[in-house]
Amino acid sequence: MPRCSSVHGNQMETGTDLEIYMEVYKGGLRNPSAGQIHQITAHLSSFGKLQGKNVFYWFQNHKARDKQRLKKKKLLMVKQHPQSCCYYASLSSQMPATRQGSVTVDAAALIIGL
């Protein structure tokens, strides 16, 4: 399956690429390190031409789109249930902030079998 769009020359993911990206992303890896990007690139390049910047940009774009979806979902929830949202927002502001744990295991290596 060709990777390049004939119209703009942009990189296009194959079905296999997307599956691997999504498995890694759902596994908790949101900001892969340079080494992890290199591992993912090496694995995906067996399916065709691919550069590390494509892997980096995929994760960056996917994270931004997730953020937009969440923002849109919260806004819709506020519009549909204004009183209940204000109540939950006040409760969450009273709770101590929690930090999501960082991925300690190289999720990319585990998922793609490197």
UniProtKB/TrEMBL annotation:
Which GO molecular function entries does the Swiss-Prot or TrEMBL record give? DNA binding; DNA-binding transcription factor activity
What are its GO cellular component terms? nucleus
Name a single GO biological process. plant organ development
Give the Gene3D superfamilies listed for this entry: Homeodomain-like
Q: What is its main location?
A: nucleus
Q: Name the keywords, alphabetized.
A: Developmental protein, DNA-binding, Homeobox, Nucleus, Transcription, Transcription regulation
All copies of domain Homeobox, residue ranges: 24-68
Task: Give the subcellular location.
Answer: Nucleus
Report which superkingdom the organism of origin falls in: Eukaryota
InterPro entries this protein is in?
A: HD, Homeodomain-like_sf, WUSCHEL-like
Q: Which PANTHER family match?
A: WUSCHEL-RELATED HOMEOBOX 1-RELATED (PTHR45940), WUSCHEL-RELATED HOMEOBOX 3 (PTHR45940:SF42)
Task: Describe the family membership recorded for this protein in Swiss-Prot or TrEMBL.
Answer: Belongs to the WUS homeobox family.
Q: What is this protein called?
A: Homeobox domain-containing protein
Biological source species = Kalanchoe fedtschenkoi (Lavender scallops)
